Amino acid sequence: QVQLVESGGGLVQAGGSLRLSCVASGQTFSRYIIGWFRQAPGKEREFVASIMYSGESTYYADSVKGRFTISRENAKNTGYLQMNSLKPEDTAVYYCAAGNAVPIIKMGSYNYWGQGTQVTVSS
């Protein structure tokens, strides 16, 4: 079992930045691929970014490429999502997830989920 807790969400103006954190407890953090997903009101949850076990590879949705950066510190059991140049369309609840399956862009590849943190970007 892995427990995930996200933090760092909030209200920010368009063009601003936020850094989300995902702290894990339970099993060895480095054994899992970490993904970030988001869900806007009335929309399906969508893939944002993921990072492999030791951070050797990262993947991004086209909508956030060049603006968001995913990273992890296995020694701290923590994953991060640095979000820059935020847009109103980035407004959503952001979820951290951990898993070992592929494809990494699919929700079903992740076994464990956090409770989510709200990000609101005002225009």
List its salient traits.
123 residues, mainly beta, seven-stranded mixed beta sheet, four-stranded antiparallel beta sheet, 11 strands, globular
User: How would you describe the shape?
Assistant: globular
Helix content: under 10%
Q: Give the amount of beta strand, in percent.
A: over 45%
Give the biggest beta sheet.
Answer: 7 strands, mixed
Distance between the first and last residues' Cα: 40 Å
Structural class: mainly beta
Number of strands: 11
Rg calculated over all Cα atoms: 13 Å
**Number of helices, where a helix is a run of at least 4 consecutive DSSP H or I residues:** 0
Mean pLDDT across all residues, rounded?
96
Low-confidence spans: none
Order of helices and strands: EEEEEEEEEEE
Q: How would you summarize this macromolecular structure in one to three sentences?
A:
The mean pLDDT is 96.
